[in-house]
Amino acid sequence: MSDAVTVGSGRSFRLDPFVLPARSRPANGATAFVIERDSVVVSRSATADAPALHVTVPLAAYRGVAVRMEAIGDNGDVRAFVELLHTDPALTLRLAESDMPEELAADWQAWGRALRMPLLVIGQDGSVGEPLAAHGLAAARPKPRRYHSYFAKRRPRFLTRRKTGVKNRMELLRGREIIARN
Questions:
Q1: What is the pTM of this model?
Q2: For the CA atoms of 59, 87, 139, 38, what is the dihedral angle to 10 degrees?
Q3: Each residue of 39-63: pLDDT tens digit?
Q4: What residue ranges do the domains of the chain occupy?
């Protein structure tokens, strides 16, 4: 069992990706959730705007673990968020947030491995993409090591230097058994 950890002066929030089920119990009456290996339980208390909510969502319904950055003010400060992304914004869950994005990079990858979900990047315009595709890089399938027929039909160089063995007659050993028996 893991509870949300508030780091520093209350400007950071982090759930531990290495301890599942991970539990979030916000103090202000917002949405509480429990992340298990195969499902997520979301609970929200009743407010004037919305009724109470208690729903179990399979983990496969989520798109992946996303990272999002927002500018804070005009001085260039950035706030980063790691979220479990769902197509319904009401079911998107915040896993971590911090004013230092470099702190959340390891958590983002750890959550992806722990939940076996793809890593996603949310752009400034709200578009969702893969991390490599977002930066103009594409990962291709690796090429086979040897794909020419020239290389496939010949012996490797270290095997060409070896000489074949000569078959000799097998030696027969004769002797007397020296085990004491009565």
A1: 0.63
A2: 0
A3: 999 888 777 777 877 899 999 999 9
A4: 5-134
